[in-house]
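Pipeline run #58 for the internal structure catalog. This entry was flagged by the ingest filter as a single-chain record with no existing model, so it goes straight to prediction. Upstream metadata was stripped on purpose; only the residue string is passed forward. Reviewer on rotation: M.T. Logging verbosity set to normal.
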Amino acid sequence: MVDVDPLNVDQSEAYNILSDLENAGKLSSDKAELYKNKFHQLHEACLNNMENERQLAQKISQLKKNLSNEGLKLEKANQQQNDQKYKMNSLEERLEQVKKDTNEVDDRNQHLQSTIAKLENEKQDKVSEYEQKKLDQKNFLEPEIERMKAMIAERKNQLEDGAEQIEKQQTDQTELDT
């Protein structure tokens, strides 16, 4: 068998059969030429159809690859979006917790400020009360202190007078003894 180029219509088996029929006188040369032209046109249409199918198959393959790539991109984008939603929800939960903690700290701070103010007032009251008691005690004790000072001064004077008398008596005794 001879290798025949399937793209060359002049070497095809059908072309050779038409030539053989024409040579054998079974087909007129006009008819043989007409059939050869029609066969040539049909062959061209088949080749064009095959080329179109090949190009379409390539395009389909490329589109499948593109679709697969786009599907992967979409899946990745969806995963990133889900990750972002998860992070956003986590951040929103954390923000709510921080707000709650802040409110609790503010409430506690306010309570402590109130307690401090109350204690400051109590301190001020105690200081005033202490100062008043001190003043009252001073006022109460001052006359007694003054009386005691006067008594001490009087006793001192009495002692000095007694000492002078003793000294005078001793001097008198000494003079008498001498």
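catalog note: Residues 85 and 91 are 10 Å apart (CA to CA).
catalog note: The chain has one domain: 9-134.
status: ready for reviewer M.T.
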